[in-house]
Amino acid sequence: MVLDIAIQAYSTEALWHLSSRVTADMLPFVGRPWRKDWVTVQFETEQQAQEYAEAHDLARLDTQHRAARIALLHELLAEFPAGELLDAGCGPGVFARLLLESPTYDYRITMVDQSEAMIQYCATHTNGDKVRTMVADIESLPFDDASFDVTISTGALEYTDANAAVRQLARVTKPGGAVVVSMLNPFSPYWMTDWYLYRPIVRCLAWVMTLLGIRHKHYYGASHDGIRALRSRALRRYMRQSGLIPTDVVYFGLTPLVRPFDRIAAVRHWSECHGGQLQSTRGWRRWMATGYVIVAHRGG
To answer: The whole model's pTM is what?
Structure first.
């Protein structure tokens, strides 16, 4: 089936939660749910947290976007190797565990996420006395001003009011401290094809098959997910308005492929062989990047 080319199936439990909490995806003009509802419903159960964590496991990071982001963040944080670090919107805690296991860094890490299931997963899968976990909303962080030397938010701002989230990250960062955030590149051919062509087609096919009474799978990623990606210019403006000074912008996850061809192993292998090893750039090739990272400092 065309639908089977590429996306992972929702579990029955996850699908039930999705359908019971949000407006039908095929009726966008009848009622569009709040973005937070779309976000919350994707990560609110233990099973959803487990599935998401397994998809992002360090040993299985085989997608160009995720692997490139992890490598780039590890490189950029070398300038700030120690201190109190906040991982806001930590998800299953993949990057925090990488930092704890690396001899390069000596952080005391606070991990927060609005999903209680994600925080529970972090608490049970992250060992050590240098870690604390907490359920909290990145748009309203429960910490005093200037609490952290480094604050990071990777793969989370797309699901939030980015302006409010950035203000909070700036507020809890010490003067002279660093804020490191990532964002999907909204002008990437990969994401533009995914959001405006591939996913709508998958949704329409599934809807038609349902009307015709044809059995089919329900697919993870085929419905609205609450993502709102911003240009780096807009995100940097939010940072400056919050008292941060952006010092570097690096684009990562370069790929000429679009959905669903990235899920075909032979095509992906050909692209990697002919596309070179460039995983990040500050130059003209950023049009191919699936995401970018901004490093900023808080003014004194």
So the answer is: 0.76
